[in-house]
Amino acid sequence: MTDEQSTTGAVLVVGGGISGLTAALEAAEVGKDVFLVEKGASFGGRVAQLNQYFPKLCPPSCGLEINFRRVRDNRRIRTYSMTTVKSVSGAQGNYEVTLETAPRYVNSNCTACGDCSAACPDERDNDFNFGMDKTKAAYLPHEMAFPRRYVIDKNALSAAGAEAVKSACKYDAIDLDMQAQTRTINVASIVWATGWTPYDATKMENLKFGQSQSIVTNMMIERMAAPSGPTGGKIVRPGDDKEIESIAFVQCAGSRDENHLEYCSHICCMATFKQMSYVREQYPDAKIYVFYIDLRTPGKYEKFREARMADENATFIKGKVADIAIEADGSVTVTAENALTAEKISQQVDMAVLATGMQPNFAIEQAPADLQIDSNGFVISDPNSAMISAGCAKKAADVVTCTQSSTAAALKAIQVSRR
Amino acid sequence: MIVQPDLEFIKSLKEAGGDTLKKCYQCATCSVMCPLSKEGKPFPRKEMIWAQWGMKDQLLNDPDVFLCHQCGDCTANCPRGAKPGDVLSAIRSYAYTFYGWPKPLAKLASSAKGLPMMIGIPVVIIFIMWLLAGATHIPSKEQFANIGYTNFFGHWEFKWYAKNIFFIVLIMVPSLGLGLFSAFMGVKKMWSTMAKQAGVTNSFRPSAVQFTKEFLWPSLVEIIKHNRFNECGTHLDRVRGHLPLMLSFIGLFIVTLWSLLKQDVLGLIWPSLHGPLPLMDPFKLLANVSAIALLFGIVVLWNNRKKAEAELDTQATFYDWFLIWEITAVGVTGLGAELLRWGGMPTLGYIIYFLHLVSVMMLFLYLPYTKLAHLVYRTTAYAFEKYRESQFVKAE
């Protein structure tokens, strides 16, 4: 079987985060043709947003850079950023997939010199930093973006801005008339590595996210702690930049809750332990309060927990925070019942961190293919139809588990494409 | 601590609407969400684990179980659907049976299996009384218009005390007496176990006057004003039904007291006071207004209950529905008998009046064992809570 790209028995990997990159590389490096599509402007996914990631607390440049390099060097992988799957037809072994690439308004002449951004007078909310700062309307998705090419947010660009960026570009790379592009590919199997989105914290009305700058999410802390983040790596209270004297971590914010996410997101406890380290490095005397239902430290992480719990200025309270009150001085008071002492506790802190869980993206948007999806939005692998799930599209997991499941998915995709 | 789980206890909670209790994983959201839970040691999280472990004694000694008004805020926000509000209701249901005296009657009133007997007892007693009274005939239309139901149990010439009143007192006073005595015994037992649990020694005891003034009266004021009920979020609608219902009970209580005084005391002096009250008599007005408030209240509560069962998946239990049916029966038969009197339909009127007597007797007789028992037990828990916080206990 041959198609217009001369690929036979190719594998489509949907999603270019750590899981999609891994699955694509594993399949390509044993000789399969791979299409790797990513809806964002850069590959790297959620890992790119972290300050450090498990198991070794590496910065994301550590794992992503080597993967990007492997992808770049591998002629069997065709990458498409800003691209989504529109429709899938056919059957196992012979799928016809329609892809749509959104206009980037910057073509491949771009050298990422940054002149357009410098000249651009317009700004947009930086979604990569969860809206904590702004970028220009012509921007590089993030520090280590791959492909290393600028992108223009046309909705945020004024007429004057359009003129400015165009005249600033020395390479004729800006094309504001670019249209969305559709292409059809034929593949034998599809790996769904569509990842996750932090659960919308505004849905927990009692936790008042969005009503006070002092209430942030765990992913916002990652961005703050990251050197490339909105505060240059300093964890401070958004808004007034107050240094942290006390901080509360609110575990299971929307997780293990049938009104929100009914499952455990697996890694939020560990994320909190990790973020305790960020706080402790910057503020040796800050009071840290962790409110939890159960502390879950999967696999080899038990020692990590022990070390954090030995911190003298850290208090662990077994009880879910069920109410957050906003104080006049900008601080917040979190309230819980300590189930071990049966006493109600109200603790005023400078900042409350909601440890929100992972919601699979197909819980938020409709899957473009006929997939088996469980009630929570996770994709169930179906080798018979050659639809394989990987990473956090399969289940909430840490990076190690994701790369393992992606390798497994690549193997399964190869097997079924050979039938 | 060695926990001796009482499996029978857990089973009975599940039957009484607490079937979800094992779902609780102790996150304690409920204790913070509860608008009635005080600072310090909140509820209902601790009650949930006691219930899961079958720690019956802890629960029966715990005033918090009775201070819960089943607002439903805990249940609505529970991440596991463990429905703490419904579980506490089931614990109360168990407690009323546990504290009930005499035991067989308490047991009888605890499940739908006992319902035929529960209805049968008053039916038989009142029917026998009716036969014994020898007034076994239905009046003509003309007679009925004049005398109404005042000759239900017949008439004798002893003008100082009407035969009808004699029989009604003979039936109702022992019923209410038994109910009140049993309630008193239960409350007394509950108070002493709660005091023991709370570590109260009796070096300083309030006098009866002090007790009434400092603990009981403020509790009653709080209850009548529905202060705590009004803090509820999810089931706040219930106040719209409960308040008129409670006021109607107070209204009907006043009317009954007046009637008793008028017929049984003043009637001895002025025999003309016997007989039905004229329509414009202030007490008759109060009675009618109360009857309408009662029916309005019970319709609201009936609908709320149905809605909770449909929308919140609340279990339909005998414990909850018995009281709703019972009060509906009292209201419908009472007002029905009056309307039939005005309509001049003696036969049907007599049957409905008979059923009215049956339903009222049931209300009195089963007061301390069914949901109506909250009247005494919750009031006691209010008073105990105030007592526990008072100098009588704190000073020790």
From TrEMBL, chain A:
<dbReference type="InterPro" id="IPR039650">
    <property type="entry name" value="HdrA-like"/>
</dbReference>
<feature type="domain" description="4Fe-4S ferredoxin-type">
    <location>
        <begin position="101"/>
        <end position="123"/>
    </location>
</feature>
<dbReference type="GO" id="GO:0016491">
    <property type="term" value="F:oxidoreductase activity"/>
</dbReference>
<dbReference type="GO" id="GO:0046872">
    <property type="term" value="F:metal ion binding"/>
</dbReference>
<dbReference type="InterPro" id="IPR017896">
    <property type="entry name" value="4Fe4S_Fe-S-bd"/>
</dbReference>
<protein>
    <submittedName>
        <fullName>Putative adenylylsulfate reductase-associated electron transfer protein QmoA</fullName>
    </submittedName>
</protein>
<comment type="similarity">
    <text>Belongs to the HdrA family.</text>
</comment>
<keyword id="KW-0408">Iron</keyword>
<keyword id="KW-0285">Flavoprotein</keyword>
<keyword id="KW-0479">Metal-binding</keyword>
<keyword id="KW-0274">FAD</keyword>
<dbReference type="GO" id="GO:0051539">
    <property type="term" value="F:4 iron, 4 sulfur cluster binding"/>
</dbReference>
<dbReference type="Pfam" id="PF13450">
    <property type="entry name" value="NAD_binding_8"/>
</dbReference>
<dbReference type="InterPro" id="IPR017900">
    <property type="entry name" value="4Fe4S_Fe_S_CS"/>
</dbReference>
<keyword id="KW-0411">Iron-sulfur</keyword>
<keyword id="KW-0004">4Fe-4S</keyword>
<dbReference type="InterPro" id="IPR036188">
    <property type="entry name" value="FAD/NAD-bd_sf"/>
</dbReference>
<keyword id="KW-0560">Oxidoreductase</keyword>
TrEMBL record, chain B:
<dbReference type="Pfam" id="PF13183">
    <property type="entry name" value="Fer4_8"/>
</dbReference>
<dbReference type="InterPro" id="IPR017900">
    <property type="entry name" value="4Fe4S_Fe_S_CS"/>
</dbReference>
<feature type="transmembrane region" description="Helical">
    <location>
        <begin position="243"/>
        <end position="261"/>
    </location>
</feature>
<dbReference type="GO" id="GO:0051539">
    <property type="term" value="F:4 iron, 4 sulfur cluster binding"/>
</dbReference>
<dbReference type="InterPro" id="IPR036197">
    <property type="entry name" value="NarG-like_sf"/>
</dbReference>
<feature type="transmembrane region" description="Helical">
    <location>
        <begin position="115"/>
        <end position="133"/>
    </location>
</feature>
<dbReference type="GO" id="GO:0046872">
    <property type="term" value="F:metal ion binding"/>
</dbReference>
<feature type="transmembrane region" description="Helical">
    <location>
        <begin position="285"/>
        <end position="304"/>
    </location>
</feature>
<keyword id="KW-0812">Transmembrane</keyword>
<keyword id="KW-0472">Membrane</keyword>
<feature type="domain" description="4Fe-4S ferredoxin-type">
    <location>
        <begin position="57"/>
        <end position="88"/>
    </location>
</feature>
<feature type="transmembrane region" description="Helical">
    <location>
        <begin position="165"/>
        <end position="187"/>
    </location>
</feature>
<keyword id="KW-1133">Transmembrane helix</keyword>
<keyword id="KW-0560">Oxidoreductase</keyword>
<keyword id="KW-0004">4Fe-4S</keyword>
<protein>
    <submittedName>
        <fullName>Putative adenylylsulfate reductase-associated electron transfer protein QmoC</fullName>
    </submittedName>
</protein>
<keyword id="KW-0411">Iron-sulfur</keyword>
<feature type="transmembrane region" description="Helical">
    <location>
        <begin position="316"/>
        <end position="336"/>
    </location>
</feature>
<keyword id="KW-0408">Iron</keyword>
<dbReference type="InterPro" id="IPR017896">
    <property type="entry name" value="4Fe4S_Fe-S-bd"/>
</dbReference>
<dbReference type="InterPro" id="IPR051460">
    <property type="entry name" value="HdrC_iron-sulfur_subunit"/>
</dbReference>
<keyword id="KW-0479">Metal-binding</keyword>
